[in-house]
């Protein structure tokens, strides 16, 4: 059944969801300690709230059909190190990758226009991220306590929320002639950048 929700219990090692999968229920893999790799195939449009949160996944492959990653979908996946978000994703929810301590690399899609609040907060290992050219808004705490080697703010950015750039960075570069509206930013206490 194409509209069936997948409610998952305990699985071991690698989980490959079939092409018929169109949705994963909220909290489906919440706290799962046995799945380390997830391959999602098929026609899924949304990754539900907290669907993989607090799990032990190290690697995830998302389908090209994906358009939205809901709030907290990967929250506290402390072993996740690398994520490539499909090109069609237009929204990454609040807290989506918060507390992903080992997340080192993220590839964001060009269609993304807003980074929701605290979407990458406390990703201490996040060193490199390329912000898409269509990004207009970075909401409060989006990168709080990350440690970038270099962060380039594209000229498309119109506003940056409170503590969104509470980061440690070697270089912070604004591409446009006009600086966007920037809310108060506190000093970063936790993130570190790599010495080169």
Commentary on this structure:
Helices cover 0% and strands 26% of the residues. The chain contains no helices and 15 strands. The strands form 5 sheets. It has a 4-stranded parallel sheet, with no helix packed on it. Strands 1-2-4 form a 3-stranded parallel sheet, with no helix packed on it. It starts with 12 loop residues before the first strand and ends in a 14-residue tail after the last strand. The relative contact order is 0.11.
What are the SSEs and their pairings?
Elements: E1 13-17, E2 35-40, E3 46-47, E4 59-61, E5 68-69, E6 82-84, E7 91-92, E8 105-107, E9 114-115, E10 128-130, E11 137-138, E12 147-153, E13 159-160, E14 168-174, E15 181-182
Parallel strand pairs: 1-2, 2-4, 3-5, 5-7, 6-8, 8-10, 9-11, 11-13, 12-14, 13-15
Structural class: mainly beta
Please tell me what the overall shape is. globular
- First and last CA, distance: 53 Å
Number of discrete helical segments: 0
What's the average pLDDT?
A: 87
